[in-house]
């Protein structure tokens, strides 16, 4: 089967002219995958199967929902998990099949309220005036109040999703990093307060991209820790696992939680997944709950990992151990959920820590062999358009370089595939 992937050269997979301006691009989220790439790869895998109707794809780290959206377009049922309530909300908003008339009527109601002199409460949370200018707080509070007046909770999904973009855009945090980092005072003062105009414009645009056709494909989305949620899936029930897992602990790789924390403080908890109620929203809580966020003891004998740990300083070793121990647990659970002959498609990168390349591809290969998978292929692509700063974080005051290449790893579980 590896021959079918020969045409997917680095040149092809780089998607030089790609613009994320379709449905997948309506919401801002860090490190989003290229939907066209996911589509090509998944289509290739699906050719193996006689029938697609009964297949189930799992994305245990769905992020902004790129893979789940493609699975839906290709007619494949899916299950998706993510620990970040904002990721869960925007993915739900993209996957929902709206009733066009009802949505347009609610949008008109919302716009009428926004254009009126409606009385609203000023929203407040800890340090709100650090992250937002007072006039911006007023406008965002008005939008929030008006969205809450809309009764249809599914229509509110898309209203909140676009609201989260606008919260980010008009906050005092820089757009050049996913971390919360104050803009210079002069830039804050110069921001034009056209919040409501921007919101309406972005919402109008998003409404042209949503799905309005009732679709028979099922998508089940759950917010929470994959490690726990995987226990709710029957063993050997998944045909394809397709995801882009975190490459390291969030606080030193991509701070998905911090990125989302401002928007999450504006969106009422009742409109987020029930899991959100259990999350304390300080600015780093989601990142700490994510893979690699808490302390673990080394308990594995992975060759590449242990060789790597020797190369880096003691102060950096613990974070690598925390992440890989969690990752190994997830890998083990995933391997029990997949059917014999099923496929894993992982998009991963090798980041540098302490100036040494963390061999994540080799660690995945080692785990795959350990849990009964054979490697189908490894495709490499250069990352051109990821909104990742070249230096993403600073640990012990030294910069850690981010990756500029990623790999698509395809593994097949041993055994006869019953559906092929
Ligand atoms: C690389 S991103 C996925 C990006 C996604 N493929 C896309 O195109 O948007 C990884 C995701 O893993 C999530 N994550 C990290 N630890 C998790 C955990 N323990 N359980 C569930 N999701 C987790 C993060 O919130 C993040 O959204």
Automatic annotation (TrEMBL):
Q: Which GO terms describe its biological process?
A: methylation
Q: Gene3D superfamilies recorded for this chain?
A: Vaccinia Virus protein VP39
Alphabetical UniProt keywords: Methyltransferase, Transferase
Keyword Kinase present in the record's keywords: the answer is no
Extract one GO molecular function annotation from the record.
DNA binding
- Has the keyword Ubl conjugation been applied to this entry? no
Domain (DNA methylase N-4/N-6): give its ranges.
Answer: 41-85
Q: Which interval of the chain is the signal sequence? A: none
Q: Which domain of life is it from?
A: Bacteria
Q: What is this protein called?
A: Site-specific DNA-methyltransferase (Cytosine-N4-specific)
């Amino acid at each position: 089967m590896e021959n079918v992937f020969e045409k997917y050269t680095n040149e092809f997979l780089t998607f030089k002219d790609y613009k994320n301006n379709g449905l997948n691009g309506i919401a801002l989220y860090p490190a989003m995958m290229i939907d066209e790439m996911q589509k090509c790869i998944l289509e290739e895998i699906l050719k193996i199967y006689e029938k697609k109707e009964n297949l189930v794809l799992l994305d245990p780290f769905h992020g902004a929902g790129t893979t789940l959206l493609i699975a839906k377009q290709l007619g494949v049922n899916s299950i998706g998990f993510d620990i970040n309530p904002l990721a869960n909300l925007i993915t739900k908003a993209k996957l929902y099949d709206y009733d066009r008339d009802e949505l347009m009527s609610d949008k008109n109601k919302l716009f009428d309220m926004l254009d009126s002199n409606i009385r609203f409460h000023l929203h407040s949370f800890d340090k709100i005036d650090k992250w937002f200018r007072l006039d911006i707080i007023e406008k965002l509070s008005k939008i929030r109040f008006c969205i809450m007046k809309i009764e249809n909770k599914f229509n509110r999904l898309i209203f909140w999703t676009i609201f989260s973009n606008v919260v980010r855009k008009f906050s005092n945090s820089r757009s050049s990093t996913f971390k919360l980092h104050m803009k210079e005072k002069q830039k804050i003062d110069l921001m034009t307060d056209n919040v409501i105009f921007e919101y309406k414009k972005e919402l109008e645009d998003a409404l042209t991209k949503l799905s309005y056709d009732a679709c028979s494909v099922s998508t089940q989305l759950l917010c929470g820790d994959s490690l726990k949620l995987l226990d709710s899936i029957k063993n050997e029930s998944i045909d394809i696992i397709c995801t882009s897992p975190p490459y390291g602990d969030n606080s030193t790789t991509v701070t998905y939680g911090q990125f989302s924390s401002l928007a999450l403080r504006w969106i009422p908890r009742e409109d987020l997944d029930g899991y959100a109620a259990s999350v304390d929203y300080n600015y780093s809580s989601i990142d700490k709950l994510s893979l690699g966020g808490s302390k673990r003891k080394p308990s594995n004998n992975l060759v590449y990992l242990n060789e790597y740990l020797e190369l880096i300083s003691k102060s950096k070793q613990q974070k690598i151990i925390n992440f890989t121990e969690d990752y190994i647990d997830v890998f083990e659970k995933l391997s029990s959920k997949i059917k014999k002959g099923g496929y894993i498609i992982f998009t991963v990168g090798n980041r540098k820590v302490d100036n040494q390349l963390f061999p994540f591809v080799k660690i995945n290969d080692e785990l795959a062999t350990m849990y009964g998978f054979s490697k189908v292929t490894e495709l490499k692509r250069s990352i051109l358009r990821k909104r990742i700063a070249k230096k993403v974080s600073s640990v012990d005051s030294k910069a850690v370089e981010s990756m500029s290449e990623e790999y698509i790893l395809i593994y097949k579980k041993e055994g006869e595939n019953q559906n092929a």
